[in-house]
From TrEMBL, chain A:
One of its GO terms (biological process) is error-prone translesion synthesis. Residues 472-699 form the UmuC domain. This is DNA repair protein REV1. It comes from the Eukaryota. Pfam families: BRCT_2, IMS, IMS_C, IMS_HHH_1, REV1_C. SMART domains: BRCT. Its main location: nucleus. Its cofactor is Mg(2+). PROSITE patterns: BRCT, UMUC. The lineage of its organism: Eukaryota, Metazoa, Chordata, Craniata, Vertebrata. It comes from Mugilogobius chulae.
Automatic annotation (TrEMBL), chain B:
GO terms for cellular component: nucleus; zeta DNA polymerase complex. InterPro entries: HORMA_dom, HORMA_dom_sf, Mad2-like. It comes from Mugilogobius chulae (yellowstripe goby). The keyword Nucleus applies. GO terms for biological process: DNA damage response. Pfam families: HORMA (PF02301). This is Mitotic spindle assembly checkpoint protein MAD2B.
Amino acid sequence: MSRDGWMKKKSNAGDDNGWAEAGGYMAAKVSKLDEQFKLAAPREKLKEGTSSTIFSGISIYVNGYTDPSADELRRLMMLHGGQFHLYYRHSKTTHIIANNLPNSKIQDLKGEKVIRPEWITDSVKAGRLLPYLKYQLYAKGKSVLFTGITFRQDKNVPDSIQTLPQPNVGQNISLPHSINTLHKNVVPNYAKNHTCLQLQSSSSTPQDKRLGHPQPQMNSLRCQNGVDVTINGHAKVLLDTSHLQLAPNEDSSLLRKVPLTNGHTRLNNSALRHEDLSSVAEPSDLFESKTRVPHYKCHVTSIDPHSKSDPYDFPHSPETPFEKDFEAQDQLCVDVNNKVEPQTVKTTSCPSLQEPETSVDGEKAHVLLLNESYHNISDRSSANNKQCFTEHMLSESSSQLQAQTDNLISEFYSHSRLHQISTWRTAFSEYVNELHCKRRTSGTPSFPGKDSLRRMKIQGSCSRQVSVKSCIFHVDMDCFFVSVGIRHRPDLKGQSSLRPGTNPQLEKKYYEEKHNHAQHKEDGDLHRNPSQEGPGLHTNGVEQDATGLSMAEIASCSYEARQAGVKNGMFFGKAKQLCPLLQAVPYDFEAYKQVALTMYETLAGYTHDIEALSCDEVLIDATSVIKELEISPHDLASAIRADIEKKTGCCASVGMASNILLARLATRKAKPNGQYFLKSEQADDFIRDLAVTSLPGVGPAMGRKLAAIGVKSCGDLQQVSMSVLQKKFGPRTGQTLFRFCRGLDDRPVRYEKERKSVSAEMNYNIRFTRIDEAECFLTNLSMEVQKRLKVAGLRGRRVTLKVMIRKVGAPIEPAKYGGHGICDNIARTVMLAQSTDNGQLIATAVIKLFHAMKLQVQDLRGVGIQVQLLDSKNSVTQDYHTRSIKELLKQQGQAQCPKADTSQIARVMLQESSIAHVASVEPVPETSKEQARITTNYPQSHLRLSIEVPSPSQVDRKLNGQISPKQSTFSRPHFPSPSDSPKSSPGKLILQIPNQPENTGIVLELPNFSQIDPEVFAALPKELQDEIKSAYCRTENTSDQLSEVRNPLLQLKQAGAGPVRVKRQYKRKNTSPAKSCLSPIKKQSLTISPANTLPSPIKQERPVERLKTENSSLKQNIPEPTCASRAPPALAGASEWTDIKTLLREWVTTITEPMEEDILQVVKYCTDLIEDKDLEKLDLVIKYMKRLMKLSVESVWSMAFDFIVDNVQVVLQQTYGSTLKMA
Amino acid sequence: MTTLTRQDLNFGKVVADILCEFLEVAIHLILYVREVYPSGIFQKRRKYNVPVQMSCHPDLNQYIQDTLYCIKPLIEKNEAEKVVVVIMDKGHHPVERFVFEISQPTLLSISSETLLSHVEQLLRAFILKISVCDAVLNTNPPDCSFSVLVHTRESATRNMEKVQVIKDFPWIVADEQEIHMQEPRLIPLKTMTSDIVKMQLYVEEKAQKI
């Protein structure tokens, strides 16, 4: 054991050569190495000329690849009085040096100080031993995945300097710098990429800022940015050239496997926590700058050919490594490295690494206030950074617990701004809803916009025009994200207006990264083998590719950029090629929100007939406004547009037409910043020429399908008959197409939009190694869905699990870190028995689906859970269950009570159609034969005596309150037959109100539990509940009658989606505070048992006897569930033995008295088992129940058990000719 | 998941082989556990990776083998409903019946579960169950004998008469006496469900054995 541990450690060290067992060998070797080290040290010192003892007492062990290399570190340690251990020695090694460690190593080294090599180099530079805390590779207790991921501060720069053959030790001047620009090397690990910027401050001190520049694996192979930066008007920073240098020895493929946990935790400050994960995508957030400059403008200078040939100048300039102490957050420390030997630099920036040919295009650095922090973005570097960051994320997350962290998903979503944006639509819908609500409550709302229009009209500024009969406005902000992004930046606007077309300006957003497969493939190779690309490869050609490799997607681009061929969704790299002057604008979510809200508010000033389509897209039913104001749509539209522009600073386009479809299409024509009224008579011509794909709902896929049948334009489509379309695309889609291509659209503007589905999906960063991780993830995701369902107040029945699975042959790691790469999408759907918003239930269903898919968890790339067939929570409980009956009972309650008072049994029969019959019944004789049956409307009931009652869920609480405990005994819904109750709400209910418990012969027809809403039930008065509970125990008394009713009961059991639903309710029931007496519902088939005909006193004794005689039967209880693959018999949805057991146990232990319904369910289950030839399980069930019964003191349970056994025996007798041996 | 009919891959034969092999082991074990024969004639062997007892009496073994050999074609064609090992007392009244109830799905679906190892695990459970079944059964009277009955599905008997698998080893219709048991008590022992076969074993025991 101990040796194993040792060997393991040793194997970490790299060479377990079999000598380990020789025992002394290692020790000898180690001491020899030490000696060698000691001997070599003075020699080294001599050679170097400089030495110190700053590291005295420190022994380092270098673990894995480091930068600088282990050799270099060793040398440094020699020079500065430290110790270098080639092998890790637990007690002696004081520090472990590593740039990155796999998770397993981190765990192995728990409690050790793992420091990044920069500590050494920096210490050497500083000439003293710096505190290592800052340099810790990872902080202890680092837990959460996402929050832990942050940028590492740039220590890389000094390193690389250090690695130079002649380090500039002691030549660094550390000076606080007012420029406050913050550049960090995002991924030092990858990186030998340095962006060198030459800063010209106002003091005209030329300084070279040496920026750590991230090297995204794929593409950031170059970086030459010539940028004029004006900061606060004081300092001019000339980013002369930034060189991206690739260290020759870099093995980034190796590196990226390594978790970059290093030191990130320290950056877990508030600002970073706001970081959203999908926009890891947006590393810029991390570039926190304390600069007080809201944005500094970077002027593109690099277009001039000079800078292109410039790169070689760079090495000669002094360098300034910028470091930011993130811990302090607001201290900026700039190490100015004034002297750098040209020679040195040359080695790092060997020509082959540089890209003179790079188009040094617009580099903008913006600092925007976002989430209370400033973000500095420079477009390409941010693209790169983003890339790196993403990689960062992934490398960390993939090797880390990633999906294991419980809060991963919620964190993901709470952090994902994109997600946020996508939810805005809902938010705005709600906003509109609220408007409506307010209007309803407060009467006349104020419509400032409308009012001003009215005034204008009165002043005669608006032309009168006859209003059209219906007018829909489609208001769409013009390239929303862009306009918002630049609305306070007239400079950009100015540019674009000055040189539209030639100097298109693009603002792009880094959306969640997605893969374009084609792109991916073509880039894949490059990406996968970064290590194989020697420095020499990074020549001009590659450079171009590298640009094209920026995988950031353009979320929105300005119309100028569109003219240059840039499209939304395009990868930034490609876009950049198309349009070299492309500029990126960072996300500004607050601004989006603000602008969107303003827009909605503005619109609400005109009318409340608004349908929110998205945060920047609105449908307005302007018909009434136009009628009211008697103005032309055009006037209204321009008023609205002017209003919006005034208030938001962004322009909107308005499409107007008689229906939604045409309005949307008109908007296209209106854009940008215009309005277009598509008259009905023009509509036909207009739409005929449109491509089919421009119709809403016709995407590329359908477009291809249509193209396959020769349909390209809507005109073509008009030639296709509806039947053909329906055949090809399904009845609904077909019809929609048919109508759309004719410009027909009868959809109303819906102010209150119903949600059709609630879903949660993650396809980023999904890397599982074990199935339980996936399960855990699914559970978490389900909980997320639950959260959303709850927020929306919805429940859904249909659960769909969507997974993305790596396509066979696709690279295991896609080009984009954490991306899903090339995937197959698989979806499986399951119908729950009842609508739910319970995450656990969803999780169970989903996990089942997941298992059924039989997928390799490792290949899982994306998971989504969608819940459909939603109904609102309220309607579930009210409409679904209680609506009719509840009200009925309210109405009937008064009538019912008095009668119940006088009669021993009152029978109420409720038809679904809301008819309640209240009847009193004769006192029940013991034999119960004479009981009269009064119910009229109950064809299937053969019960002579029955009281039909609404299900508890339908029993009005007030009513229950009114019914005195003595009078009401039970109430249980009963399902005559499925056909009877189409909505599966109880068709008939039997209410039995015996007045005395002793009164035997009362027939209880226990309702199907699935119909009982536990919540309602829980709300019943205690007494009532008790009586309901006790109702079951009386069932034996009437079993002779029940036997008569056997057939109907058997029919009953078919009703609906019984088992699953039952189970669910059962669970919920257990959580209800009142602990209602609902028990697991079982289906039943009754058989005649002589015992049942006995009068109750006799019966009550029997079970006891029987128990005594039978209580030794449980010798064997080996659970061996062997479940039939085809529809195994199930008890309340459970078919596995363990589930059955749980169910039974809960049933017996949580309920004082069994209910007949449940008993019958158990009998039914047993019968099913017999039919299924699963006697073993039957035996187990019986034995288990017997054991449970023994625990239960209640004699009613014994009776219940007895009853079950009797029935089972009869069935067995019939089937096998023998009965189960019970003792 | 492939769905095969019984004809494909001659699957019936495979199933029959598996089952007959199992039945042989089971019968030996039953005889040992129920002490129909003196334990001296049994040897400990290993089957399904568990210890089993197998008779080394050649005649007995031959009988069992022949019986199973005759059963096999029935199972192959899915005509055997039950294979019953009846233990009878001196008067040839059955005291115990070990009933192997076999049902085979008409469609065989082959999934990874049907790997034989899985079936083997299930069968192993049967064997283990048999070897402990004496715990739930009453002691048999002395001088018991046994016979093997097969409950066939209809029409199978006629074929059986025609085709005599082993010469001079014909099937005979069981005596009513052998079948009928007074006050039988049923003790389920084991049920297995796999894709290729579903089988359950239960014991019917005479209430008053002696």
